[in-house]
Design a protein that fits this description.
Number of helices: 5
Largest sheet: none
Distance between the termini: 25 Å
CATH superfamily: nmb1532 protein domain like
Oligomer: single chain
Strand content: under 5%
Helix content: over 70%
Shape: elongated
Amino acid sequence: MNHTRQVARMLDDEHRSLLDLLGQVEQGLARARHHDAALVPLLGLLARSIEHDMQRHFLFEEESLFPLLIDAGDGGIAALLTDEHDAMREVGDELMPLLRDAAAGRLDDAPWAALRRLAQEFVEREVAHIQKESMALLPMLEDLLDADTDAELALAYSAQ
């Protein structure tokens, strides 16, 4: 979809990049039976995405966009997306120590199985979440944001 609002374009670009990473993680984990040194860089990218990029993205939506949705009478979608953010944060919090251990080569078979399970759960949740945002949130922003608000929010998000 071609978005006319800067905020929608920025979020869509991030979604597309994340979907690419998640696809690589999913494929890499499907091929690996145990800790595989070749996956370390990819798992590091996933860890960075969870720690920094996703938190930044989630907070921006929750603090800057969802209140606008609520004010416009679309609190249901804001609540649903917030619940999904919380669920992904929980999985991410459990997954992060395993990703760090994998990067350091400190995983045996049992933690590796847990890492695979949690990473697969995370990927599934995140892909479904992105689909919801792409089908609901981003189109809503096109109608909800005027040019000035869009520019202000885009600048604020870029500065984070």
